[in-house]
Amino acid sequence: MSVYSLLRSSVIENTLITALNLMGLIVTSRLLTHDEIGIQVLTTIVVLFAAALKNFGIISFLIRHKSLNKRVDLTTVTKSLVKPTALLLRQFSAT
Fold this sequence. Notes:
Blueprint: H1 3-31, H2 34-64, H3 70-94
Helix pairs in contact: 2-3
Protein backbone atom coordinates (compact mmCIF):
# COMPACT_ATOMS: atom_id res chain seq x y z
CA MET A 1 0.00 0.00 0.00
CA SER A 2 1.19 3.48 -0.72
CA VAL A 3 1.45 6.23 1.85
CA TYR A 4 -1.38 8.15 0.19
CA SER A 5 -3.81 5.25 0.37
CA LEU A 6 -2.95 4.71 4.04
CA LEU A 7 -3.41 8.42 4.73
CA ARG A 8 -6.73 8.41 2.88
CA SER A 9 -7.98 5.40 4.86
CA SER A 10 -6.88 7.02 8.11
CA VAL A 11 -8.74 10.24 7.31
CA ILE A 12 -11.86 8.29 6.34
CA GLU A 13 -11.64 6.20 9.51
CA ASN A 14 -11.28 9.26 11.76
CA THR A 15 -14.18 11.00 10.01
CA LEU A 16 -16.44 7.96 10.41
CA ILE A 17 -15.52 7.55 14.06
CA THR A 18 -16.26 11.21 14.74
CA ALA A 19 -19.60 10.96 12.92
CA LEU A 20 -20.56 7.82 14.87
CA ASN A 21 -19.62 9.50 18.15
CA LEU A 22 -21.73 12.51 17.24
CA MET A 23 -24.70 10.32 16.32
CA GLY A 24 -24.34 8.42 19.58
CA LEU A 25 -24.24 11.69 21.50
CA ILE A 26 -27.38 12.92 19.73
CA VAL A 27 -29.28 9.70 20.40
CA THR A 28 -28.34 9.48 24.06
CA SER A 29 -28.97 13.19 24.58
CA ARG A 30 -32.60 12.64 23.63
CA LEU A 31 -32.88 10.05 26.40
CA LEU A 32 -31.14 11.97 29.20
CA THR A 33 -32.16 14.84 31.46
CA HIS A 34 -30.36 18.20 31.37
CA ASP A 35 -28.05 17.33 34.27
CA GLU A 36 -27.15 13.96 32.79
CA ILE A 37 -26.32 15.55 29.42
CA GLY A 38 -23.72 17.76 31.09
CA ILE A 39 -22.08 14.76 32.74
CA GLN A 40 -22.10 12.89 29.43
CA VAL A 41 -20.49 15.77 27.56
CA LEU A 42 -17.74 16.15 30.18
CA THR A 43 -17.06 12.43 30.07
CA THR A 44 -16.88 12.50 26.27
CA ILE A 45 -14.39 15.38 26.40
CA VAL A 46 -12.14 13.48 28.82
CA VAL A 47 -12.22 10.35 26.65
CA LEU A 48 -11.44 12.29 23.45
CA PHE A 49 -8.60 14.14 25.19
CA ALA A 50 -7.10 10.83 26.35
CA ALA A 51 -7.37 9.45 22.80
CA ALA A 52 -5.57 12.52 21.43
CA LEU A 53 -2.78 12.12 24.00
CA LYS A 54 -2.43 8.47 23.07
CA ASN A 55 -1.77 9.24 19.40
CA PHE A 56 0.96 11.86 19.86
CA GLY A 57 3.97 9.59 20.25
CA ILE A 58 2.80 6.82 17.96
CA ILE A 59 2.43 8.97 14.85
CA SER A 60 5.87 10.55 15.18
CA PHE A 61 7.37 7.11 15.88
CA LEU A 62 5.91 5.72 12.65
CA ILE A 63 6.95 8.73 10.59
CA ARG A 64 10.56 8.41 11.76
CA HIS A 65 10.96 4.89 10.35
CA LYS A 66 11.65 4.56 6.64
CA SER A 67 10.58 0.92 6.43
CA LEU A 68 8.09 -0.84 8.63
CA ASN A 69 8.87 -4.34 9.81
CA LYS A 70 7.52 -6.73 12.43
CA ARG A 71 9.59 -5.15 15.23
CA VAL A 72 8.27 -1.66 14.47
CA ASP A 73 4.71 -3.00 14.23
CA LEU A 74 4.99 -4.71 17.62
CA THR A 75 6.52 -1.60 19.19
CA THR A 76 3.66 0.50 17.84
CA VAL A 77 1.06 -1.91 19.19
CA THR A 78 2.79 -1.97 22.57
CA LYS A 79 2.90 1.83 22.74
CA SER A 80 -0.75 2.09 21.76
CA LEU A 81 -1.73 -0.30 24.57
CA VAL A 82 0.60 0.89 27.34
CA LYS A 83 -0.08 4.63 27.14
CA PRO A 84 -3.89 4.48 27.52
CA THR A 85 -3.58 1.88 30.27
CA ALA A 86 -1.13 4.08 32.16
CA LEU A 87 -3.41 7.11 31.73
CA LEU A 88 -6.39 5.09 32.94
CA LEU A 89 -4.56 3.78 36.01
CA ARG A 90 -3.28 7.27 36.80
CA GLN A 91 -6.82 8.65 36.56
CA PHE A 92 -8.23 5.97 38.84
CA SER A 93 -5.43 6.41 41.36
CA ALA A 94 -6.03 10.19 41.48
CA THR A 95 -9.68 9.78 42.47
